[in-house]
Specification:
Blueprint (H helix, E strand, L loop, with lengths): L6 H16 L4 E10 L6 H12 L11 E9 L3 H16 L5 E8 L5 E6 L4 E4 L3
Antiparallel strand pairs: 1-2, 1-3, 3-4, 4-5
């Protein structure tokens, strides 16, 4: 007779195998914000702004739309992690012709360890 495996046993073994490798790598959370460049018309933003005005929110103007993307980066080397995020943004997540992007990289404690914005094309380092 076969012994039935409990769900809790399976979850515990998965959890333990994940902990096995946690000492080798560090997990960073990256929040990428992609928006249209200022010179590009934003018809979706205009439609939202018009609807807001129709609903009586006439004090809300300059609506621009975009997308937020959250990524987990599992890498011990922060420079390699930043390079991976930068490359992913440039190659896939943002269209360099019509969009700009910025990101913040947070460590396990939620502290910002790196920032980048294509608006000023420079990385801003922050410790803390």
């Amino acid at each position: 007779m076969r012994k039935k495996r409990k769900k809790s046993d399976s979850a515990a073994s998965t959890f333990n195998s994940q902990n096995l490798f946690s000492w080798r790598r560090k997990l960073y959370k990256v929040i990428v914000k992609v928006t249209l460049k200022k010179k590009i018309l934003d018809p979706q933003g205009k439609a939202i702004e018009s609807s807001l005005h129709n609903l009586g929110f006439s004090n809300l103007t300059g609506v621009r739309t975009g997308k937020n993307i959250e990524i987990a980066v599992n890498d011990k080397d922060i420079e390699r992690a930043k390079a991976s995020v930068q490359s992913a943004c440039e190659k896939l997540l943002a269209n360099p012709v019509t969009e700009e992007f910025e990101y913040e990289m947070l460590d396990n404690d939620g502290a910002i360890v790196a920032r980048f914005s294509t608006q000023n094309r420079q990385a801003k380092e922050s410790i803390g």
